[in-house]
Design brief:
Elements: E1 3-7, E2 22-26, H1 28-64, H2 70-86, H3 100-112
Antiparallel strand pairs: 1-2
Protein backbone atom coordinates (compact mmCIF):
# COMPACT_ATOMS: atom_id res chain seq x y z
CA UNK A 1 0.00 0.00 0.00
CA UNK A 2 1.37 3.43 -0.99
CA UNK A 3 0.18 6.87 -0.02
CA UNK A 4 0.58 9.44 -2.79
CA UNK A 5 0.37 13.19 -2.16
CA UNK A 6 1.63 16.50 -3.50
CA UNK A 7 4.20 18.26 -1.31
CA UNK A 8 4.33 22.04 -1.09
CA UNK A 9 6.63 24.39 0.84
CA UNK A 10 6.63 23.57 4.55
CA UNK A 11 4.40 20.50 4.20
CA UNK A 12 4.99 17.22 5.94
CA UNK A 13 7.01 16.24 8.95
CA UNK A 14 10.33 17.28 7.44
CA UNK A 15 9.58 20.18 5.10
CA UNK A 16 13.28 21.01 4.77
CA UNK A 17 13.96 17.56 3.31
CA UNK A 18 11.15 17.76 0.77
CA UNK A 19 11.25 19.75 -2.45
CA UNK A 20 8.53 22.11 -3.71
CA UNK A 21 5.83 20.64 -5.95
CA UNK A 22 7.44 17.20 -5.94
CA UNK A 23 5.28 14.11 -6.18
CA UNK A 24 6.39 11.53 -3.64
CA UNK A 25 5.27 8.04 -2.74
CA UNK A 26 5.54 7.17 0.93
CA UNK A 27 4.87 3.81 2.54
CA UNK A 28 3.29 3.59 6.00
CA UNK A 29 6.61 2.21 7.31
CA UNK A 30 8.42 5.33 6.05
CA UNK A 31 5.85 7.57 7.75
CA UNK A 32 6.33 5.72 11.05
CA UNK A 33 10.12 6.02 10.68
CA UNK A 34 9.85 9.78 10.02
CA UNK A 35 7.64 10.24 13.10
CA UNK A 36 10.15 8.31 15.21
CA UNK A 37 12.91 10.64 13.96
CA UNK A 38 10.81 13.65 14.99
CA UNK A 39 10.33 12.14 18.46
CA UNK A 40 14.05 11.41 18.76
CA UNK A 41 14.90 14.99 17.80
CA UNK A 42 12.43 16.31 20.38
CA UNK A 43 13.88 13.92 22.94
CA UNK A 44 17.36 15.37 22.31
CA UNK A 45 16.07 18.89 22.97
CA UNK A 46 14.44 17.79 26.23
CA UNK A 47 17.57 15.92 27.32
CA UNK A 48 19.68 19.02 26.62
CA UNK A 49 17.30 21.15 28.68
CA UNK A 50 17.57 18.69 31.57
CA UNK A 51 21.36 18.91 31.37
CA UNK A 52 21.21 22.73 31.34
CA UNK A 53 18.92 22.98 34.37
CA UNK A 54 21.12 20.50 36.24
CA UNK A 55 24.40 22.32 35.41
CA UNK A 56 23.18 25.90 35.71
CA UNK A 57 20.33 25.56 38.16
CA UNK A 58 20.38 22.70 40.62
CA UNK A 59 24.08 21.97 41.11
CA UNK A 60 24.98 25.61 41.88
CA UNK A 61 21.88 26.01 44.06
CA UNK A 62 22.66 22.92 46.15
CA UNK A 63 26.30 23.95 46.38
CA UNK A 64 25.40 27.44 47.73
CA UNK A 65 22.87 26.47 50.37
CA UNK A 66 20.85 23.86 52.20
CA UNK A 67 17.11 23.84 51.47
CA UNK A 68 14.94 23.06 54.45
CA UNK A 69 11.55 23.22 52.70
CA UNK A 70 9.84 22.63 49.39
CA UNK A 71 8.88 26.30 49.35
CA UNK A 72 12.57 27.30 49.29
CA UNK A 73 13.25 24.85 46.45
CA UNK A 74 10.27 26.23 44.51
CA UNK A 75 11.50 29.81 44.95
CA UNK A 76 14.95 28.81 43.67
CA UNK A 77 13.41 27.03 40.65
CA UNK A 78 11.16 30.01 39.87
CA UNK A 79 14.14 32.36 40.01
CA UNK A 80 16.17 30.14 37.68
CA UNK A 81 13.31 29.85 35.17
CA UNK A 82 12.97 33.65 35.04
CA UNK A 83 16.69 33.89 34.34
CA UNK A 84 16.50 31.12 31.73
CA UNK A 85 13.53 32.58 29.85
CA UNK A 86 14.36 36.29 30.05
CA UNK A 87 18.15 36.68 30.42
CA UNK A 88 19.98 33.56 29.23
CA UNK A 89 20.70 33.64 25.51
CA UNK A 90 20.44 30.34 23.65
CA UNK A 91 23.07 29.73 20.99
CA UNK A 92 21.37 26.84 19.23
CA UNK A 93 20.87 26.87 15.46
CA UNK A 94 17.23 27.91 15.74
CA UNK A 95 17.54 30.48 18.54
CA UNK A 96 20.60 32.34 17.16
CA UNK A 97 21.49 34.07 20.44
CA UNK A 98 17.95 35.00 21.46
CA UNK A 99 16.28 34.28 24.77
CA UNK A 100 13.16 32.06 24.77
CA UNK A 101 10.93 35.06 25.56
CA UNK A 102 12.40 37.01 22.62
CA UNK A 103 11.63 34.07 20.34
CA UNK A 104 8.07 33.82 21.68
CA UNK A 105 7.50 37.57 21.22
CA UNK A 106 8.87 37.36 17.66
CA UNK A 107 6.52 34.45 16.90
CA UNK A 108 3.54 36.36 18.31
CA UNK A 109 4.38 39.45 16.20
CA UNK A 110 4.73 37.37 13.03
CA UNK A 111 1.48 35.53 13.73
CA UNK A 112 -0.40 38.79 14.33
CA UNK A 113 0.89 40.33 11.08
Amino acid sequence: MHIHREVGPGDGLFGSYQRDKESITTTPAQIIYQRRLAVLDHNAVVERFHQTILQEGWRPAFHRRHFSSIRQLQAEADSWFITYHHRRRNNGDYMRGRTPIQDLDSHRRNKAA
